[in-house]
C-alpha cells in the first residue's frame, strides 16, 4: 500500500530492483523502453550459398545455425566482442520463417533463432558484414529475403 502503490518495478542484472515508473504514485518516470539495436546484412557472397553465417557460439568455427541473405535484419542480443585479431563478433536474434512439416496448410511459422555473427572482419582482411539500421526506419527484425536457409 502507501505511496508506492501503482509504481512499476522491475528486476535488474546482476541483482536487485529498480523503479521504472512512479507516475501513478505521483512520482517521475525514470526509464523508457529502449529497443535492441538492429543491423542489416550488407555483404553479398560470390558463392550464393548464404551471405552471412549465424553460428551457435562466439567462436568462428562453432556450429552453423542458419545463413542470412543480403538485406536481412537482425536484432543485437548482447554486447559485441572484439577478438584478438580485431574481428568483431555479435550475438543476435532473428526470425526464421519455416514451413511447418506437420500442417497441411501453407502457414509460415516464425521461429526465433539466436546465434553469433561477424559484424566486421576488415582487420583480418575480410569484409564488413553488417551495418546498423537507424531507429527511424520502422523495420522489424526478420529474415526478409531468404526465409531461413540452413
TrEMBL record:
Region (Disordered): 131-150
Biased segments, Polar residues type: 137-150
The name this protein goes by in its record: Uncharacterized protein
Amino acid at each position: 500500500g502507501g505511496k508506492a502503490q501503482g509504481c512499476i518495478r522491475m528486476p535488474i542484472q546482476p541483482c536487485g530492483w529498480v523503479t521504472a515508473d512512479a507516475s501513478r504514485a505521483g512520482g517521475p518516470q525514470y526509464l523508457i523502453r529502449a529497443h535492441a539495436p538492429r543491423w542489416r546484412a550488407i555483404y553479398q557472397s560470390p558463392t550464393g550459398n548464404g551471405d552471412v553465417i549465424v553460428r551457435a557460439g562466439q567462436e568462428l568455427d562453432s556450429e552453423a545455425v542458419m545463413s542470412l541473405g543480403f538485406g536481412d535484419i537482425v536484432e543485437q542480443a548482447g554486447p559485441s566482442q572484439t577478438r584478438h585479431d580485431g574481428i568483431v563478433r555479435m550475438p543476435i536474434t532473428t526470425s526464421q520463417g519455416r514451413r511447418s512439416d506437420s500442417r497441411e496448410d501453407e502457414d509460415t511459422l516464425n521461429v526465433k533463432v539466436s546465434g553469433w555473427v561477424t559484424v566486421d572482419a576488415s582487420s583480418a582482411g575480410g569484409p564488413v558484414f553488417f551495418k546498423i539500421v537507424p531507429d527511424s526506419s520502422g523495420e522489424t527484425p526478420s529474415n526478409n529475403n531468404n526465409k531461413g536457409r540452413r
